[in-house]
Structures are given as C-alpha cells and as structure tokens.
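Q: what sequence does this backbone want?
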C-alpha cells in the first residue's frame, strides 16, 4: 500500500519515514484507508530550513496578500466540504450532520476569515507611538510556528486549518503543521486546499508544511530548534508538558492547552427553583459530543441537602437512560476507563456507568461518580484527574466552608460556572465563592454550561495551569490569539522612511487603531503633537 506524501518546501514528496500508520474508524474499531508516514528528523530538519527561509519573505509581504490567502483557503474548504466532512466523520465518528458540516466547518472558515480581517486592519499588532520621545513599537512576526492539533476538533483546531494556524499565518508566520494521528486523512485534504491557496496567492511555498507523526524525541527537538519562533499545542497534559520542558530549556515560546475539568457550582436556590431543568441541561452538556470537548463539565460542586440528593438521583437516571456515544478512538476509550479507575482509587463512588462497550466500537457507558467534600479536600489532586469523555464527578460538600475549601484547592481550568437563584436568593453564597473560582478559571460563566467556545473578540479560551501553559493568552478570540505569535519590536529615533508602515505618522489604512501619546485612535500623528 502506498504511503501518503508529506508537504515540505513547497512540494508533496515521499517522507523520510521511520515507520507508518493508518487512521482508525472508531465505530468499527479497525484501521482503514491509506498509510501515513512517521517522519524522521530529516523531514523535520527540511521543514525547519524551508520555513526559516520563507519567514523573512513572508514578513516583508503586505498584509493584504496574507488576508487574501486566508479568504481563498476558506472558500476552498467550503468547495471541498463533502470530502472533508466525509473523511472527518470516518476518522473520528463525529456526526457529519449537524456537528461537522453545519457547526465545525462553518466555524473553521469563519475563523480563517476573521483572521484575514485582523491581518488587513492591523490593530492586532498594538502599534504604539510616543511622538515626543520618537519611540515606536509594535508586534512583528515571531518566525516559523509549529502547530500540534488535537484529536477532538478535526477541522476547527486542526493543525493546518484551525485557530492556531489562522492566528500564526495572519500574524505573518509560516506554519509547520503536525497532524493529529486520529485524523491524518482529514488533515491531508485541508493541507491540499491550503497549498492550492498558497500557490494562487503567490506566497512563499513553505508558508504551509505538513508532517503527520514524529517520535516523541523528534517532536521535542522540533519545538526547541533555534530556527523555530514558537509552538501552539493542544492535547494531552503528559505530551504537552514534555514539549514544554524541551521548549523552555531552549527559551522558545510554547502555547499549550492541556487539561481542564471545568467545575460547575450549583447553589441551593438554583436547585430548589429549577432542579429538573438544570439536571437536563447538565446531562446534555456533559454527554454532548460524547464528552470530548475541552470545556466539558467534568466536576459538579453541590451543597448537601435533600434537594441535592434528588438532583443527583435525576442525573443518574438521565445518564443511565441516554445512549452512550462513540469516542474518537480506542485510545480515548482506554484512557477514559483508566481515568475512571483513578477517580475510584482516590475514593470516588461509581454511581452509573464506568464499563467499556463489549463490541468493537470505541465506547464507554455514560459515567457519573460521587465524592464528599471531605474526600476531595484530602485527595484533591487525584480527584481532579481529567476523565476525557462522557464522564463527570459530583462532589457534595457538607457546608459552605467545606465548599469554599474545595474551590480553593482547584487547579487552573479553562472555565468555571456558577448557577444561582434568579431572584437573588443565592447572592450571599455567590459573593463568598466567586472570588476564589474567578482566580482559577479563564472564563467565568453564570447560569450557563461551559460546553462550546464562541469565536468572539472577547473570548478567553485559556486559563491558569494546567488548563494552559500561560494564563495571559487565549487560543480562541481574534485578534488576541494572533499576539501569541508576535515579538515586540521597538524603534527608537528611527528615520521615518525606515519605519514599518504601521508606525509612520500617517495611518496606513485609516482603520488601524494605534496608541499615539497615550490615546487609542485611528488618526494620523499630528504635526503639532510632535516635538
């Protein structure tokens, strides 16, 4: 069987491979389709060399050319949507409709177009001018960016079409995409569309490169290479931290999305007021996509009461009566069962589920576990094990002080939600608990489940460790996501004709917001404001 080519230095060519693999159909529990290569270091080295050569060429191009590429790429993805959606469905078992075709693909093309708009406008680079001192600064492209995509969003977080890719390109950097091995065929189709758009836009051909898999050692060597500017990674905590150690040792920026259990605090008044509705809402959120969202609510925090017992009983019945979905792969199913076992070993009681499907399908029964507040306090680290999939842990605290202590012991998370009485009956409790939760999450929600991430300029898809590797950046939300892939460049008394256009006295497009002498404006630098 032929092995799929890699895309390196503007050419689809055979890999310098050290092995090969095939994608898995998680519904059938068996491999299918083409062989894909495991690249050796020679492929990584060649991709780095090509990207390093392309980077200065790319940085010198007008933003409009980058934007045109992103817009054209989005159109090409839409034009080949049937093939892309069909392949992604086979490789991940995610529903073709509505999930992939009607939700994730439009989100993907929307992100690409938002990134194009941000590149055209230019405010993302934070141009700052001190006209009196004649000091000016902005963010410039950081250099080649390696993007490692996750398994759970084959389009919207794909290494060659997702948010990290779009942000890196819009900021003016070439991308070396490392496909997720759960969906190599989907990634190849997206890369073909991207490369066709590169050629049409007349961009340096190495702006987009693709390899499918490397050894762990070569992955760590890649993120630490001096030719690389930065890395964007979404995936498991263990693999991400290994890459972080390598990148940190070399002084290379790496932006990680690692692990999150997304605590949901449901206060007594909310349960009394609308308990059945909340039980249905939580069940839908937790089991959506078979629980394989990075914002899946994996921890529910409650205060002990008779109403709470009825609420938990309702959750158990709903989990039991709902059909278990198909997980992304057998590896995910194995990992989920292992994580459930770790929670039980730490003292959690299994209320429902926990068992692997006996058939070939990658599936685990919908799972709900329970622990007391006291147990959580004594085994906080183990009881925060992420069970990635259709599982969640309920923690019931005896009183408010115990619940507050539980929240204080939470690790960093992407999200945290608090449900409370709509008439203000829980306001005193909210005021007591919210400050601690706020410090432990990137996005705080009220009366809303965390599942799903809107592509909004105000969105933060980040948070304290271990949700991400750095609490000051977001993987979703344009233009902020672009700033991860820029370096701050300062110009002190540089002659006007030598400045980047964004730092000249004249606003280059009339739309770019620049900080001029402490005020954000789209105006030109006035002659009277200079000394």
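A:
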């Amino acid at each position: 069987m032929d092995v799929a080519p890699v895309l390196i230095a503007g050419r689809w060519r055979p890999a310098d491979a050290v092995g090969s693999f095939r994608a898995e159909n998680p519904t059938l529990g068996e491999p299918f389709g083409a062989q894909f290569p495991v690249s050796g270091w020679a492929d990584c080295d060649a991709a780095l060399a090509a990207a390093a050569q392309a980077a200065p060429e790319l940085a010198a191009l007008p933003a409009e050319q980058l934007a045109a590429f992103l817009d054209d790429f989005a159109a090409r993805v839409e034009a080949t949507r049937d093939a892309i959606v069909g392949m992604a469905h086979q490789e991940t078992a995610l529903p073709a409709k509505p999930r992939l075709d009607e939700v994730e693909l439009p989100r993907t093309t929307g992100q690409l177009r938002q990134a194009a708009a941000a590149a055209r406008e230019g405010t993302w680079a934070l141009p700052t001018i001190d006209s009196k001192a004649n000091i000016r600064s902005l963010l410039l492209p950081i250099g080649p960016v390696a993007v490692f995509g996750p398994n759970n969003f084959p389009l919207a977080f794909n290494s060659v079409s997702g948010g990290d890719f779009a942000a890196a390109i819009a900021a003016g950097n070439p991308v070396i995409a490392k496909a997720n091995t759960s969906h190599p065929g989907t990634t190849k189709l997206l890369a073909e569309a991207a490369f066709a758009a590169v050629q049409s836009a007349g961009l340096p051909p190495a702006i987009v490169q693709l390899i499918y898999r490397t050894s762990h050692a070569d992955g760590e060597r890649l993120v630490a290479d001096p030719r690389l500017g930065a890395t964007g990674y979404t995936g498991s905590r263990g693999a991400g931290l290994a890459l972080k150690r390598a990148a940190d040792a070399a002084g290379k920026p790496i932006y990680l999305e690692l692990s999150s259990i997304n605590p949901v605090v449901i206060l007594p008044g909310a349960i009394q007021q609308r308990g059945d509705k909340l039980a249905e809402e939580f069940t839908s959120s937790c089991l959506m996509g078979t629980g394989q969202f990075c914002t899946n609510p994996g921890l529910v925090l409650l205060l002990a009461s008779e109403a709470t017992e009825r609420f938990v009983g309702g959750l158990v019945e709903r989990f039991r009566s709902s059909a278990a979905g198909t997980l992304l792969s057998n590896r995910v199913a194995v990992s989920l069962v292992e994580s459930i076992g770790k929670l039980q070993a730490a003292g959690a009681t299994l209320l429902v589920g926990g068992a692997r499907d006996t058939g070939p399908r990658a599936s685990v029964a919908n799972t709900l576990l329970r622990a007391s507040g006291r147990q959580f306090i004594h085994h906080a680290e183990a009881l925060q094990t992420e069970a990635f999939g259709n599982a969640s842990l309920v923690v019931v605290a005896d009183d408010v002080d115990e619940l507050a202590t539980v929240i204080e012991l939470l690790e960093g998370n992407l999200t945290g939600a608090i449900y409370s009485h709509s008439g203000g009956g829980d306001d005193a409790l909210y005021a007591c608990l919210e400050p601690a939760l706020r410090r432990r999450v990137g996005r705080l929600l009220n009366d809303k489940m965390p599942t799903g991430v809107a592509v909004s300029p105000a969105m933060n898809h980040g948070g304290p460790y271990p949700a991400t590797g750095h609490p000051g950046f977001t993987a979703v939300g344009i233009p902020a996501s672009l700033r991860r892939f820029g370096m701050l460049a300062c110009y002190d008394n540089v002659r006007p004709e030598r400045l980047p256009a964004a730092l000249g006295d004249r606003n280059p497009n009339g739309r770019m917001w620049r900080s001029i002498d402490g005020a954000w404006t789209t105006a030109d630098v006035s002659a009277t404001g200079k000394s």
